[in-house]
Each structure stands twice: as structure tokens, then as C-alpha cells.
Amino acid sequence: MARARAVDDSQIVKIMETADQPLTAYELIAKLPARQRPSPPVVYRALERLNADGRVHRIESLKAFIPCRSHGHDHEVVLAVCTDCKHVEEIEDHGLCRVVSRWQDTSGFSAAQKTFEIMGQCKDCSTH
Ligand SMILES: [Zn+2]
Ligand SMILES: [Zn+2]
């Protein structure tokens, strides 16, 4: 069995930061230099790790990832997704986070994943 090649987490984040679009795992793999291209499971695991750490965010509706633009958050992630051009903007609003955590406290709901996705058209796409 061939040894799975490791992947550098920082390299993954860097590739995402230079891309102007959310990247799927496969698009990300394609952007890695061919000689050090890891197998898809290695990349999936790296993405899961980065997502759990809040360094990248998974966009469920696009099955893609973006780098986190805010620094170190343990709060909810709010993403506005343009369904036309696939541009994704991260919204920093602690008010919304407070509402959600208050509701969690009273409802006893245990959230495994706290990402909000707002779907629609960005300013550029809605004015065309
Ligand atoms: Zn973020
Ligand atoms: Zn758009």
C-alpha cells in the first residue's frame, strides 16, 4: 500500500486565499503542485480539521470551502452565498450569535455545526 502523502494545512489555506471563489476539495487538489498532490481522503481530513478550527468554512450548499476572513472565532459563522457568481461573503455579526446562543441555553439544543447560509444574489449580480 502506498503511503498517503501528507498535506500542509497552511498551504491549503493559502491556496484558498488566492482563489477568488469557494473551492471544492477536488478543485483544491487540482491547484496543488502535481508532484506533491495528496490523495483525496488526505485532503478531506485536512479540510475537516481546518473547518473545525475555524480557519476555513464549509459552504454546505456549494460543497465548497472558503478561508475564514475573521481572526479566530468560536462563534457562529454567517455566510451570504451568491447563487449566480458563487461569491461568498462572511458576515461578522455578534448580535445574531447572541440570539442563537441564548436560544440554545433555553432550548437545550446541542448544535454540532453552527453555520448560517443566506442564499441570493450579490450586489453585482442583482443589478444586472
Ligand atoms: Zn470565519
Ligand atoms: Zn454574484
How would you write the strand order of the largest sheet?
Answer: 4-3-5
Roughly how much helix do the residues carry, as a percent range? 25-40%
Broad CATH class: Alpha Beta
Instruction: Let me know the CATH homologous superfamily.
Output: Ferric-uptake regulator, C-terminal dimerisarion domain
CATH topology: Dna Ligase, domain 1
If you had to describe this structure to a student in words, what would you say it looks like?
With 128 residues, the chain is an alpha+beta fold. The chain has one domain: Ferric-uptake regulator, C-terminal dimerisarion domain (Dna Ligase, domain 1), CATH 3.30.1490.190. The protein has five helices and five strands; from the N terminus they run αααββββαβα. It has a three-stranded mixed β-sheet, with no helix packed on it. It has a two-stranded antiparallel ribbon with strand order 1-2. A hairpin with a 4-residue loop joins strand 1 and strand 2. The model has no long low-confidence stretch (mean pLDDT 88). The structure holds zinc ion (2 copies).
Give me a quick take on this structure.
The protein is α+β, with helices and mostly antiparallel strands. It has 5 helices and 5 strands, in the order αααββββαβα.
Summarize the topology.
Layout: H1 9-18, H2 25-31, H3 40-53, E1 56-59, E2 64-67, E3 77-82, E4 88-91, H4 94-107, E5 115-120, H5 123-126
Parallel strand pairs: 3-5
Antiparallel strand pairs: 1-2, 3-4
The chain binds zinc ion (ZN) (2 copies).
What labels describe this entry?
128 residues; alpha+beta; Dna Ligase, domain 1; 3-stranded mixed sheet; two-stranded antiparallel ribbon; 38% helix; 19% strand; globular; binds zinc ion
